Amino acid sequence: MKSKDEKKSFSAGALVMKQGEKGDCAYIIEEGLVEVSVQSPDGKVQVVGTRGPGTIIGEMAIVDNAPRAATVKALKDCKMLEITRDDFSQRLHTADPVIQMIAQVILTRYRDILTRSEILRDSSSWPPPEALERSYAAQTDVVESVKIANQFRAALENGELSLYYQPIIDLSKGHVVGFEALMRWIHPEQGFISPGVFIPIAEKSGLIVEASKWALAEACAALRRIEKKLKVKEPLYMSVNFSSHDFAQHDFVDNMLSTIRKADVDPHQIKLEITERLLIQQPDNAKETLQACRDAGIGIAIDDFGTGYSSLSYLYYFPIEILKIDQSFIRVMYKEERSLELVKSIIGLGKNMNLTVIAEGVEDREEARLLRDMGCDTAQGYYFAKPMPEDDVVGLLSRWDPVKIPA
Ligand code: C2E
Ligand code: CA
Ligand code: CA
To answer: What is the pTM of this model?
Structure first.
């Protein structure tokens, strides 16, 4: 990973940061001495103290977005290491999961303490009960997340995770063309835990990286088994979800290719599902990574398309093969003219750009018919099949009757 740390020099008398101004970095003082002062609302300036080598200043900027809480001036010539908020969060994302969780708990508490002291300073009274309540809830959330993250780690180690596969259907022929692999976690005590709950926690704790590696290997192996059992003529494909944390790994592409090779699967049968957000957040990294995947034959699908960003220029910039229309648009297509128009435009856009379009969350025949009539290539949703275990997929496909969608 490229570090964005930068050495900065400030000569004696120079202003390092000004109270009330926006800041996006902290500094670790390596040499020199600074003076920290605070101006009260009535304009009085009070020197809080001095800081020397080995201390950190402006650290709240890497915890939250609030303006600088104090003014810092160099008293002597100073050399400092600048740590930007982006660099810090990238480091945190790639750190050991335990360090990450501990850092997050400490940062949240630190912010709470400062918030409380600010409320005290402003109102010269005890914080209102709602403020205490909120900070307590935030802490409890963090504690709960740590608990789930630890249990998820154990689940990963103990083989408690599984994959369900949801068929993707060619709307004109009614055949199954592929699957989306979706992670499932059956907790020994709590039972089913929704991916909507555990995936964000796995992402925050960094455990998603291991989970994704496992999911890709498992999905490839399942694809081979399914094809063998069904003796399919046309190759099926498998679409696997990835997060921005996976992309931040320098060996992401190598891992991906070696896993696919080991499973003896043709890379053209693997699709990588990512969201628009990831592309916008890490454009350069993503471009390189996606191009390498694409060169190897792996297809790139944009998940939840239409919910992220308004700029479409990235569709030209990245080597994309598939657009997955978000289910929220499909759900209200009949009720809202605007959604229908949007779905129509996405299908048109896909056609113009030679991309395959998948409509997600198709729940009834009318939706399927409308989508087919609008020229949508493929669809996925409860109307055709819910996500299911591998054995059920084999059973379902062995008696599959091309889905009849009325003309
Ligand atoms: P997603 O990638 O958008 O996956 C589609 C979700 O829609 C799945 O929810 C699927 O079960 C659900 N779905 C499919 N058809 C229908 C339908 O007709 N109606 C309705 N209401 N829902 C339908 P699921 O399995 O709960 O997963 C939720 C999200 O969790 C996924 O959304 C994805 O963002 C994440 N996720 C799941 N598995 C993985 C994984 O292996 N890795 C990563 N990074 N994320 C995953
Ligand atoms: Ca997906
Ligand atoms: Ca989706």
So the answer is: 0.72
